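Customer escalation, tier 2.

The customer says the design service returned an amino acid string that "doesn't look like it belongs to this structure." They asked us to rerun it and document both sides in this ticket. The original structure tokens are below, unchanged.
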């Protein structure tokens, strides 16, 4: 099946617009201007449609090709206000900073924690060796009832990796002038996480030559996904 069937613009333009939007802190209008500078005249509404349709598809393909996460999950939750209603954004990252899962819920009680942990175990294909959380009691209940054999650390500052991983989401939330609905937020965050994982190359931790090699591999995988 041709993913781009019945679309007027070439696949290269569509995939590049989607990559720009999810890779950088840009609005749909910013992407429109960047394409216009290259002589490609397209409305921001078309860019928005592409990002909704193809972002989800590219995200599924990236997840299917993912080589797996680490054995330690750092879990945290932050509040997100959508249409005046407070929700909680649950997030888990592994020891390399890759986003394992991200899930919007209305509560942060034990039921919500167990629901999120069930998603994590399903996506990971098994229980992690260790989870690191803050001292929220909901995590203790979920750990005790679902994965009692997994190590559980709640030491102060141990969960900084997960807390810092919320920053890109906060930046995008401001650019988008807040999320408009839970479905829109969940859809965007899942696509953003897949692209983030692909290009999260830990540039500050490796030599320049190694980083360039990893970046070349990431671009090659992206091209195979959007083909």
């Amino acid at each position: 099946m041709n993913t781009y069937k019945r679309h007027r613009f070439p696949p290269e333009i569509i995939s590049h617009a989607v990559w720009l939007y999810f890779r950088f802190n840009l609005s749909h209008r910013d992407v429109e201007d960047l394409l216009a500078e290259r002589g490609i005249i397209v409305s921001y509404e078309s860019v928005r449609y592409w990002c909704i349709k193809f972002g989800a598809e590219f995200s599924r393909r990236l997840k299917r090709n993912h080589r797996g996460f680490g054995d330690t999950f750092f879990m945290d939750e932050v509040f997100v206000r959508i249409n005046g209603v407070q929700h909680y954004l649950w997030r888990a990252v592994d020891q390399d900073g890759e986003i394992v899962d991200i899930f919007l819920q209305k509560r942060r009680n034990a039921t919500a924690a167990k629901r999120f942990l069930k998603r994590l175990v399903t996506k990971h294909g098994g229980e992690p060796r260790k989870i690191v959380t803050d001292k929220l009691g909901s995590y203790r209940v979920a750990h005790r009832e679902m994965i009692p054999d997994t190590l559980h650390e709640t030491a102060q500052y141990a969960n900084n990796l997960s807390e810092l991983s919320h920053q890109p989401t906060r930046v995008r939330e401001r650019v988008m002038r807040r999320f408009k609905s839970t479905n829109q937020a969940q859809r965007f965050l899942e696509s953003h996480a897949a692209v983030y994982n692909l290009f999260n190359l830990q540039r500050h931790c490796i030599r320049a030559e190694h980083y360039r090699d990893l970046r070349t591999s990431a671009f090659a995988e992206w091209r195979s996904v959007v083909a």
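Tier 2 assessment: The sequence is consistent with the input. Strands lie at 72-82, 85-94, 99-105, 130-132, 151-153. The chain has two domains: 1-65+184-227, 72-180. Sent an explanation to the customer and offered a walkthrough call.
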